[in-house]
Design a protein that fits this description.
It contains one helix and ten strands; from the N terminus they run H-E-E-E-E-E-E-E-E-E-E. It has one helix spanning 2-18, and strands at residues 32-36, 40-44, 50-59, 67-74, 86-88, 91-94, 100-108, 117-123, 129-131, 135-140. A five-stranded mixed β-sheet has the order 5-7-3-1-9, with no helix packed on it. It has a five-stranded mixed β-sheet with strand order 2-10-8-4-6, with no helix packed on it.
Length: 141
């Protein structure tokens, strides 16, 4: 019985020592994450025409000044659409104290057919900015 008591005391001491960790090395400077809320969007483009739709973007923290981030395309795995068939705003601006905004994406029928083809948008990462969720846009006539 004494051995069980000794084991319990050793276990309690070990638990106390392990739980005394500190986080002095924790990085208090947080990274801002910017990404898309609209992860997929399908745009049906009229024959020979164009159609604009909006996608929503978020930022992880609030700021009391307006902030602008670059929007870029990233490669898709299957059925990429030719760049001549779409356009989008190259930047997205968050007004002060705003975490979500919408911006326009336009599908243009220059060489589209009845097969849905895709392109993907992301926010360009930079110092202290992490690119969050990406948005895959599908286009077809």
């Amino acid at each position: 019985m004494k051995k069980v008591n000794i084991l319990l005391v050793v276990f309690a001491l070990a638990l106390g020592v392990v739980s005394c960790e500190t986080y002095d090395d924790y990085d208090t400077e947080r990274m801002t994450t910017v990404g898309f809320v609209t992860l997929t969007k399908n745009i049906r483009v009229p024959d020979g025409g164009s159609k604009t739709d909006s996608v929503e973007v978020f930022v992880s923290d609030l700021s009391n000044v307006a902030r602008t981030f670059n929007v870029i395309t990233v490669p898709v795995d299957t059925l990429p659409v030719d760049p001549e068939n779409y356009s989008f705003e190259g930047t997205v601006t968050f007004p002060p104290n705003t975490r979500k905004v919408k911006f326009g994406v336009t599908g243009i029928d220059n060489s589209l057919d009845d097969t849905r083809r895709f392109f993907k948008l992301a926010i360009e990462g930079e110092a202290n900015v992490v690119s969050g969720g990406r948005s895959q846009i599908g286009l077809k006539k």
